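call fold(seq) -> tokens
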Amino acid sequence: MWILDKIISRSYTIKFEELSEEWLELKKNTIKQSTYYKYAYCIEKYLKERLGKLKKKDLEKYNYNQMTNELTKELSPKSVKEILNVLKSILKYANQKYDMNIHLDLIISPKVRVKEINVLSKKEENRLEKYCLKENSLKSLGILICLNTGLRIGEICALKWENIDLDKRVIYIRKTLQRVYTIEKKTQIIIDSSKTESSIRAIPMSDKIYHLLKEIYKKEYVESFFF
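ret:
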């Protein structure tokens, strides 16, 4: 019984900054490292400044939609929505563990417009490909691989020579590379597992990519070197 009394008592004194730390620690072992840094940065930069010292009664009556309006003035709707998703998850945790009564359904996220993707015309693609072949560098080869395979930039940057099998003419995608903000407001490069299980895959090489890679591989790169 004393444990329940302790939790009830704690619910009136715990501050948002402590709630967010508890929630983040709970999430730590269930999310990718890059996602953890993203959540931590979001809390530190945008949420603690506004909510950090607030306790139960303040959090229950706080005008979250006013905060949304303020954030929308400085950030894109997509960024604001991501911040609110983190916030709602923390507040849901507060409702469940500390019996708070915060109406999450009343926190309205801004509408995110889906941007039209600009696709290269065949003429533009041919011009870019011609330029990259003339350039004949690893950077231009990365662009050619992107054009011919549809790999994400993070996947290409995380490639090592050991992921390229010239015998089977296959590129193995297992990792992705991202530059993320840390709590110290510095950037850090994270090499993590691919986004989803379906992102871990084998990509067949076209004849064009195979011959280019084969020619470069003659320079005897070390297998563990980043491509």
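The longest strand covers residues 175-181.
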